[in-house]
């Protein structure tokens, strides 16, 4: 069974209960809802369907909503595609105030910011334009290649600061919806600084939303502030589509590996996203380069990989997940991710290091699973970040910790209520794990207790047990 988690974006081709069920069985751990598309009512309905199916299958599945943030999107007249040829001049404006305007960029400050010879791109860098001139409030730009632009595609302005707020008004409305349904993760697009994360957290607190914040790294400013963003966010997403437009393409692999290492050192989950199996939007199998890209994310040590259009709008959403699962599973076994050994900064991290030493360097004891008793989730995050070769089960009395585990490498969660909140003995829980098939009689397991229990003798402790 694969350890790397899969995030799938839900959309028109994957929204039916039948398809959602098949996707979960194929290996989806988290469903992403792209709030830039569809109505609040649609998202609300589909989130509830996912949760009902997850409960009926008894398979934990996380819910992630993805906010637009300071992302800029274009609008085409009557939502029709705009077809153009290389060197053709297109007219952009802030509204369709003139029949000449082909494409709207609905931010007057951005149109003012651009000047002749500036370059910008649309749709993840597929279509590039050079500004020719600005006249009468219109922007004239030359296409650097042939193309077809569809409505609501993203626009990038490499090296420019748009000055847009970290959350737009529409994001705040989507947060109001999030307060009414149970979600686990909120992804913040185009996060630039720790202040962006803190502002979102403040807005969530106003609405009593307890979800985890996933900061999306998509531009140069975020890379300049990567350490503080990792520190302030709960998880990181390397959104390579926009990032690959904002920085030179040859730097993408370097930054992917660097950010993954930094996240693991800080015990923060990290996601690699965008164009992972993109050819499967139209084809039943991926390119060899895409299969290698997914495997390379495993070797780099990512917690999760994410699919976008492949599962939201592609022809083969279920087959895409099955293919992704096979690539992950094989490469985790045959060439596991590089094991980091960051210096422990707490007793919890020290215990996790000791547990990892037992798991990996004493194979003759045949320890097959690690059972981590955790309340806050920090203990299981610490162990997961070290990428143990055996499955990890997070046993927790905290529902949010159980849900957050959907994003952690190699971790399965097991939620249990302890009488009066006090932990007495692991034996009843081990018996329940046996009933559910999570452990088997005769297995040797490593038991780790975190540092947040009411019995001091078990806080930050390790034990080895045989399941009877």
From TrEMBL:
NCBIfam families: PRK05826.1, pyruv_kin
Keywords: ATP-binding, Glycolysis, Kinase, Magnesium, Metal-binding, Nucleotide-binding, Pyruvate, Transferase
Presence of the UniProt keyword Metal-binding in the record: yes
Record's protein name: Pyruvate kinase
Residue ranges of domain Pyruvate kinase C-terminal in the record: 359-460
Source organism of the structure: Candidatus Nealsonbacteria bacterium CG23_combo_of_CG06-09_8_20_14_all_39_17
Catalytic activity as recorded in UniProt: pyruvate + ATP = phosphoenolpyruvate + ADP + H(+)
Classification via InterPro entries: Pyr_Knase, Pyrv/PenolPyrv_kinase-like_dom, Pyrv_kinase-like_dom_sf, Pyrv_Knase-like_insert_dom_sf, Pyrv_Knase_AS, Pyrv_Knase_brl, Pyrv_Knase_C, Pyrv_Knase_C_sf
Family assignment from sequence similarity: Belongs to the pyruvate kinase family.
Every Pyruvate kinase barrel domain range: 1-321
PANTHER family linked: PYRUVATE KINASE
Pfam families found in the cross-reference section: PK, PK_C
EC primary class: transferase
GO molecular function annotation: ATP binding; kinase activity; magnesium ion binding; potassium ion binding; pyruvate kinase activity
Domain of life: Bacteria
EC identifiers of the protein: 2.7.1.40
Cofactor(s) the protein requires to work: K(+)
UniProt pathway annotation: Carbohydrate degradation; glycolysis; pyruvate from D-glyceraldehyde 3-phosphate: step 5/5
